[in-house]
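dumping this here so i dont lose it
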């Protein structure tokens, strides 16, 4: 494969001729819309077939999805996934499991048909749909509630065919750091006994003493030991209510990985990867500004429609651009195959177990083609014992 950055006066035909490719292959790989205009600075995945002697390492690839995902998007993505994280299952104070509002049966069926493991994602959402540290606190300090929840999780696995549990708890109280790790360990023991793994999502810490409710309740060393593997949520530096900046700047992501490696073995770490971008209206006003979430393909279409030139921040290894609309200035940060290639490079450099995408609701075909050219993708339905156990 090759990655090409569009220059002034480039066309699909001229790029195709330069690389001896068919225009249709470039159009398909990059989800280009007729009549196929391009943005200067746009990054294209070129599906060349140049031979290479470099071995492609095996990685585990997870993707989070809601039950309202379009079936076509899911079927085009599943060939590149080891695990499909179905988002999400909640619970009550007594440990009763709460399923998603929509039926997720088709997701389990499709995942298995593509050799991917359907994973039950457990979240502590309250009635408003927000993470509740009160709910977490009450559950993990109540032995009977824990056992009830474990029984419910085990039932989902034995009766419905889930092949693992992912624990995504956020805003854990500092005083619940050890009880939370003990809870993860208890769940893992029970689910491992059924032959499946348990993972846990970790906020992106860079030190033991990092302050903030996202970080203080999560002990990397304890959770790395308690779970089969972990997901580093290495995204959301640029976020909905914050100032315009890269969502997953590589320099910041690297800091998290390097800290995590001092606490957790590399074969138990997944790198979090965002599959989205943000569109901010400037100037940013704290408490008033709100970015719009957009897809990576959509971001390029916005740049094209406003004749914007896409820039690339070398430090963050992330693309961005500015445009004007209705008298307002916008700034957009997103992911492209250049930024993703840099993140894949971290996985290789540090020998990480794999990566996890938040989330796969929007199809970004170039990402998956790049992934398949960079790695061999593990298909866990072949496994006979929990990974990392």
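and the seq i came up w/
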């Amino acid at each position: 494969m090759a990655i090409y950055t569009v220059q002034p006066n480039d066309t699909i035909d001229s790029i195709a001729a330069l690389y001896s490719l068919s225009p249709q292959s470039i159009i398909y790989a990059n989800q280009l819309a007729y009549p196929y205009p391009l943005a200067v600075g746009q990054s294209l995945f070129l599906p060349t077939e140049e031979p290479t002697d470099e071995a492609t390492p095996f990685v585990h690839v997870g993707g989070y999805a809601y039950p309202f995902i379009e079936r076509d998007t899911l079927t085009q993505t599943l060939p590149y996934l080891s695990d499909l994280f179905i988002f999400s299952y909640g619970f009550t104070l007594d440990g009763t499991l709460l399923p998603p509002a929509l039926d997720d049966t088709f997701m389990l069926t499709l995942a298995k048909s593509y050799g991917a493991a359907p994973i039950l994602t457990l979240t502590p959402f309250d009635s408003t749909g927000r993470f509740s540290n009160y709910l977490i606190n009450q559950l993990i300090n109540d032995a009977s509630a824990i056992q009830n929840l474990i029984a419910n999780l085990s039932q989902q696995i034995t009766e419905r065919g889930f092949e693992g549990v992912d624990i995504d708890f956020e805003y854990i109280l500092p005083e619940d750091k050890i009880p939370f790790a003990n809870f993860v360990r208890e769940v893992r023991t029970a689910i491992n006994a059924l032959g499946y793994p348990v993972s846990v999502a970790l906020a992106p810490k860079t030190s033991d003493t990092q302050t903030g409710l996202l970080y203080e309740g999560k002990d990397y060393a304890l959770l790395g030991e308690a779970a089969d593997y972990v997901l580093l949520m290495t995204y959301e530096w640029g976020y909905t209510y914050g100032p315009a900046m890269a969502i997953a700047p590589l320099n910041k992501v690297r800091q998290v990985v390097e800290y995590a490696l001092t606490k957790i073995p590399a074969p138990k770490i997944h790198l979090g990867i965002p599959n989205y971008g943000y569109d901010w209206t400037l100037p940013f006003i704290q408490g008033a500004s709100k970015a719009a979430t957009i897809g990576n393909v959509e971001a390029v279409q916005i740049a094209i429609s406003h004749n914007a030139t896409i820039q690339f921040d070398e430090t963050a290894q992330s693309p961005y651009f500015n445009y004007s609309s209705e008298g307002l200035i916008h700034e957009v940060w997103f992911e492209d195959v250049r930024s993703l290639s840099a993140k894949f490079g971290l996985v290789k450099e540090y020998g990480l177990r794999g990566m996890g995408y938040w989330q796969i609701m929007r199809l970004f075909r170039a990402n998956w083609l790049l992934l398949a050219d960079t790695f061999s993708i593990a298909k866990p339905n072949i496994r006979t014992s929990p990974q990392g156990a």
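The chain has twelve helices and 17 strands.
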